[in-house]
Amino acid sequence: MAAVTPARARVAGADEFTVGTEFHRALDDGRIECTVCPRACRLRDGQRGLCFVRARAGDQIVLTSYGRSSGFCIDPIEKKPLNHFLPGTPVLSFGTAGCNLACRFCQNWDISKSREIDTLSSSASPLALAEKAKSLGCKSIAFTYNDPTIFLEYAADCADAAREAGLKAVAVSAGYINPAARAELYAHMDAANIDLKAFSEEFYKKITFSSLAKVLDTLEYLVHETEVWTEITTLLIPGHNDSDAEIAAECEWIAGHLGTGVPLHFTAFHPDFKMRDVPPTPPQTLRRAREIAIGAGLRYVYAGNVHDTANQTTYCPDCGEALVVRDWYRIDRYALSDTGQCAFCGARVPGVFEGPAGDWGPRRQPIRIAAPSHKHQEP
Ligand code: SF4
């Protein structure tokens, strides 16, 4: 069995899950700065960055989680969420550990906040992963559960292997990444869902310890400077980012800066991590947000994490017919041509449509990928 890191330079004295990276620079005071994300961690030898998986080793910053995962699942692509990208198809999904944000409301905190590398109990080479995805009928692989920004070298190699196998690659990210690393990561991706967590710098600073401006910059980059199919998700947290004014400002910015055809998903918050005192998002809030978004001119706006067919359906931009009727992750009606045209009037719906819709349904199926032989091998 091949090692997990065949294409990357190994780091002397480190295990095979550790690879060198390009994105760092030496500082005058002897520290080395990681330049992947605006966090700009400045590290002395042996220290780890805030994301935990990048660390300083000698005169460089290394990635310590190449080829390691918190587990693999096959999901419906609608779960990423992506509603305009190969609808109904299965996607092999995985993440690693750690995150470069520190959101108090994190919905994946067991993975993203993990400081235990042992959380990464699964491992796979990019080739093994792509072969497994193809053999199971997946049309794409997705880097999700935590942010591929922090493991971009592994994500890029897996995406390349996927493309060689005829599959596509999907990044689910908060978009908090510097321009050079961003160009490298997204050169390998076919689609992205970017979390736009709120529309105020105050929220971003206090609740996520990051910056809204950097995320907006990533969205403009993806939509205007790449071919990456991009959708946006905003998790609405009662009392924190769900006012009419804030939602309207977000939607007007999207319409004005990205265009009215970029899909927007409003999803429901469930009390978790450090925000257990906040109630779950009422379905009415999702419906209200969607109405505001439609009022701002956005054409494809979805309510997520709930059963709400009327607000999860894709409507024709010209004739208004219900074209893709969804109940949560299940497609109940599909009236698009193989290239994404309305079956009633022929208008084109923006997105990536290659053939008929898939029939994966709402299932979530954990899978195992044969581990390579090394000292961390699974029993
Ligand atoms: S990627 Fe990780 S180590 Fe690098 S700057 Fe961001 S949080 Fe720090």
TrEMBL record:
InterPro entries from the UniProt entry: Aldolase_TIM, AmmeMemoSam_rS, Organic_radical-activating, rSAM, rSAM_sf
GO MF, one annotated term: 4 iron, 4 sulfur cluster binding
Record keywords, A-Z: 4Fe-4S, Iron, Iron-sulfur, Metal-binding, S-adenosyl-L-methionine
Region (Disordered) location: 356-379
Segments forming domain Radical SAM core: 84-305
UniProt entry tagged with the keyword Signal: no
Cofactor(s) named in the record: [4Fe-4S] cluster
PANTHER family named in the record: PYRUVATE FORMATE-LYASE 1-ACTIVATING ENZYME (PTHR30352:SF5), PYRUVATE FORMATE-LYASE-ACTIVATING ENZYME (PTHR30352)
NCBIfam families cross-referenced by the UniProt entry: AmmeMemoSam_rS
Name the UniProt record assigns to this protein: AmmeMemoRadiSam system radical SAM enzyme
Source organism of the structure: Glycomyces buryatensis
